[in-house]
Amino acid sequence: MRHLLSTGDLSRDEATLILDTAAELAQVGDRSVKKLPTLRGRTVVNLFYEDSTRTRTSFELAAKRLSADVINFSAKGSSVSKGESLKDTALTLQAMGADAVVIRHSASGAAHRLANWVDGSVLNAGDGTHEHPTQALLDAYTMRDRLGSLEGLRVAVVGDILHSRVARSNVLLLTTLGAHVTLVAPPTLLPVSVNTWPCEVSYDLDEVLPKSDVVMMLRVQAERMRDSFFPSVREYSRNYGLDGERLGRMPAEAIVMHPGPMVRGMEISAEVADSPRCTVTEQVANGVSLRMAVLYLLLGGS
């Protein structure tokens, strides 16, 4: 494995190896000195064309814990804002000898393009509405950690599927790992091609909740919307928001997930967001271990 561009590229064995490696590396986070010398002398570039707090910081922390050198390249204050193309930026990074480039870009397919232009490994940290593979991997890791196994697990992904790269990556990965996924959304927030995805679709959250082991709530991505996809925030919350009452309809052991950032009061109530059954902060912590595992496996740490 040289790049991580899509969860659809991972075999079951490869995905499991990443999760197992992350579990081993998570123990480093419990030590007083959280550093390993594994990637000393390697350079990881964070190339972010879109704003991101969690993902960028998480990749930076992961690389530093493995003793790699990290360069944060934000498009806003760089030559990109002067009109430099992705290809020219890539060639610049190539000339600097980057061993890995972590890219987030608003154009679907940007990570794949980049992989053709650099010799180092490319890690897709989100491309347009296409994929976000490390998010799906950390989600799977969190599910496995909380619930024991992914085989036969029933996962509902709820909300703005249309604009969600997290949803697509999760459907592909979780299916590979033996889970059953149901997407729950209003028809206007489902992609046209959803019938080709390996999952079920429902428009009725209340019907799906009692038979779900995991409910993953997605943020409505207003910044990617140019039209009105639902009548009002209140209407959306009433049909697709997770509140205490709906949480009560879920099986006792079931967990609530969210890739963040959460919009409290819209897709998730404060009561649910702060409940011990919500794994949001765990997902963030697990994200560091998971991204350490991916960097370690791609850059051939010993």
Q: What are the SSEs and their pairings?
A:
Layout: H1 12-26, E1 43-48, H2 54-65, E2 69-74, H3 86-96, E3 100-105, H4 110-117, E4 121-127, H5 133-147, E5 154-158, H6 165-176, E6 180-184, E7 200-202, H7 205-208, E8 214-217, H8 233-240, H9 244-247, E9 255-257, H10 270-273, H11 280-298
Parallel strand pairs: 1-2, 1-3, 3-4, 5-6, 5-8, 6-7, 8-9
Question: What would you note in describing this structure?
Answer:
With 302 residues, this protein is α/β, with parallel strands linked by helices. The radius of gyration is 19 Å and the shape is globular. The model has no long low-confidence stretch (mean pLDDT 92). It contains eleven helices and nine strands. Helix 5 packs across helix 11 (280-298). Helix 6 links the parallel strand 5 and strand 6 (180-184). It folds into two domains: 7-131 and 284-298, 3-Layer(aba) Sandwich (Rossmann fold), CATH 3.40.50.1370; 133-280, Rossmann fold. Residues 2-144 form the Aspartate/ornithine carbamoyltransferase carbamoyl-P binding domain. One of its GO terms (biological process) is amino acid metabolic process. Catalyzes the condensation of carbamoyl phosphate and aspartate to form carbamoyl aspartate and inorganic phosphate, the committed step in the de novo pyrimidine nucleotide biosynthesis pathway. InterPro entries: Asp/Orn_carbamoyltranf_P-bd (IPR006132), Asp/Orn_carbamoylTrfase (IPR006130), Asp/Orn_carbamoylTrfase_sf (IPR036901), Asp_carbamoyltransf (IPR002082), Asp_carbamoyltransf_Asp/Orn-bd (IPR006131). Heterododecamer (2C3:3R2) of six catalytic PyrB chains organized as two trimers (C3), and six regulatory PyrI chains organized as three dimers (R2).
